[in-house]
Task: structure prediction
Amino acid sequence: MKATARAHTNIALIKYWGKKNQNFILPYNSSLSMTLDAFYTDTTVEFNEAFTENQFFLNDNRVNNEMATRVFDHIKKITTLLNQPNLPHFKVWSTNHVPTAAGLASSSSGFAALTAATVKAMGLELSKSELSRLARLGSGSATRSLFGGFAMWSTGNDLTSVGSAIDEHPEMDLHLLAIETNNARKKIPSRSGMQNTVETSAYYDAWVEKAKNDLDLMTYAIKQNDFELLGKVAENNAMAMHATNLAAVPSFTYFEPDTLIAMQTVQELRDNGISCYYTLDAGPNLKILTQSKNIEAIKTYFNKKLPKASIIQATFGPGIQYLS
Result:
């Protein structure tokens, strides 16, 4: 009873920020993402009668903190929902090829891989849609990492709030440059920051309506293979999400000084005729959206502006993969 799965992380181009139901992880608005080839998580799950306790290892180190509890709780939810309550103890080995909790959506690949590996280790086969419903209970963004290319997570109820593919093999010339200026664990976890915003931000209702409109525009941009429209909508949507945080009580932000420098640098590049746009999730690291012809110029310019930053290049990645 052992299986290994690989899931790639995704970057939301239309953000999810806020739950209408905490127990079922149901979002106020649907979201849309790009699955990335450069960042992924490999997870092995084994159920074995010889094990005397549940254990979780992350990047070769045993974990006994809140993260381990979250992993154990997620597996318990899966086994309960799939009517497999009497399974033996298990061990989980996970390797993150993405900075953990630094705003690069490590939870999306982590819980997608964990869900897929757990279900396969149980000897069951489920569709990507069914897996995404289970993955949602661990991390909302994990619903989209079951799919490659462009994917969407729909709002709805427990049965209908699932991930789906928009285009798993896009023809669009779209690349992402992750500008990593800070790889430390973020001070405000996404879940607590999100809930504070939902409960206190004066801008939250307006955000939900804007996100719905942005989703329609983004879907149109993808169908029309329109990079410029995609970039403009993604950047504006990200800034609208972060504006809700600034209007929360207490006000907070994920921006660091280098985040602002990176934003300004993208604007300078555009002023110089180089087409690029930025987005960022709940963390300080900017992600730049551009086309292949602009990549080297952007790297050169950023190396001058932020010489200590790491720049990682990515493009479209695949959906869930089984390694064993």
Remarks:
- The CA atoms of residues 245 and 284 lie 14 Å apart.
- The mean pLDDT is 95.
- The first strand starts at residue 2 and ends at 14.
